[in-house]
Amino acid sequence: MGELMSRDESTKEANRTSVATLGGGCFWCTEAVFSQVAGVLQVEPGYAGGAVANPTYEQVSTGRTGHAEAVQISFDPEIISFKELLELFFATHDPTTRNRQGADVGSQYRSVIFYHSQKQKAVAEQTIQQLEDAGIFDAPIVTEVEPFSAFYRAESYHRDFFKLHPEHAYCQVVISPKVAKLREHHRDKLKKDA
To answer: How many angstroms separate the Cα of 17 from the Cα of each of 11, 21, 71, 103?
Structure first.
């Protein structure tokens, strides 16, 4: 049975929760990666950055709504910082290809950080500049940094897709290598059960 928290404890826990909204191609991939990270409390796949309210997957897939497939991450900044989330974000997708990730092509697959505060914007811009200065990638980073306006949850069949359908060809060919890369190079950032 769950433990009852006092109002002060509940408020303290709520105050420790921050939100990041990131688009790194297909949201099945980004959800699979970030759901394994220590300090991440929840990862929701959905749509952000477009002009259509309450878009459907079919609408977003046309590339005409302006939305990107994105994930909204609730995290505890005392365990993992926004900067550390961004470092994992850049390590697990290709930020050098405009409007595409591998075979997924269109503005809905763009690399984008939707910042929730001026502090997040500054951290995003600094992180991109540091990666550029370090020459980590063979081509310039094209990740967009945009103000957050709205997030629309994806349809229920998109949630936990990798976890529920590991046998799916896309999961095996595209998502599994990203998860393996995370586990190999960032083991220290993973939940104990990941």
So the answer is: 10, 13, 16, 35
d(CA 124, CA 118): 10
Catalytic (active-site) positions: 26
151 domain-assigned:
yes
Tell me the three-class secondary structure of 102-170, residue by residue.
CCEECHHHCEEEEECCHHHHHHHHHHHHHHHHHCCCCCCCCCEEEECCCEEECCHHHCCHHHHCCCCHH
* Spatial distance between the Cα atoms of 58 and 102, rounded to a whole number of angstroms: 20
The verdict on pTM exceeding 0.85 is yes
pLDDT in tens, 130-175: 999 999 999 999 999 999 999 999 988 888 867 877 888 887 888 8
Residue 127's domain is classified under what CATH number?
3.30.1060.10
Alpha-carbon dihedral sign for residues 46, 50, 55, 61: negative
